[in-house]
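Hi support team,

I submitted a single chain yesterday and got back a structure, but I'm not sure I'm reading the token output correctly. Could someone confirm the output below corresponds to the sequence I sent? I've pasted both exactly as they appear in my results page.

Thanks,
R.
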Amino acid sequence: MLFDRDDFALFDLPRRFALDADDLAARRRAVQAEVHPDRFAAGGAAAQRAAMQWAVRVNEAYERLKDPLKRAAYLCELAGVPIRAEDNTAMPAEFLMQQMAWREGLDEAGTLAAVEAIAADIDAHRQGAYAELTRSIDAVADYERAARQVRALMFVERFAADVSDRLAAMET
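Hi R., thanks for writing in. Yes, this is the structure output for that exact sequence:
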């Protein structure tokens, strides 16, 4: 195995956003079985260290590919379009207005039903956004657009986590 292969090559997968989660998990198990440190117990300390590095590499690659947002960001970076979320936070005005409306709605939501309605709205938005991201990457290979979509989805996912926290607090 080559240590510097990209995550998709590591699992013998095409560079696509749409992945079958069960297939990815099965491929991970197969690769892990090949590099598991126990297989190299008789090979000495150096062989075990190398196997441990491989096991870590496989786990990191799996974690990156199983998470849709991380996978999309990784595909953009592989295509030469880094996300740069830390210094590129520009968003379309329409998206910023939607985000402000969600925040205000959450601040004003006094009932469990109101927060659940916001959660449902965000979930519908997420589903549509991930479908668009799939098209941007897999259908048209527009990585500039995909990078913008990833940055927007990062905001959405953070807000969804806030809503989830609020729901949990209301349900206890």
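A quick pointer for reading it: Residues 143-171 form the longest helix (29 residues). Let us know if anything else looks off.

Best,
Support desk
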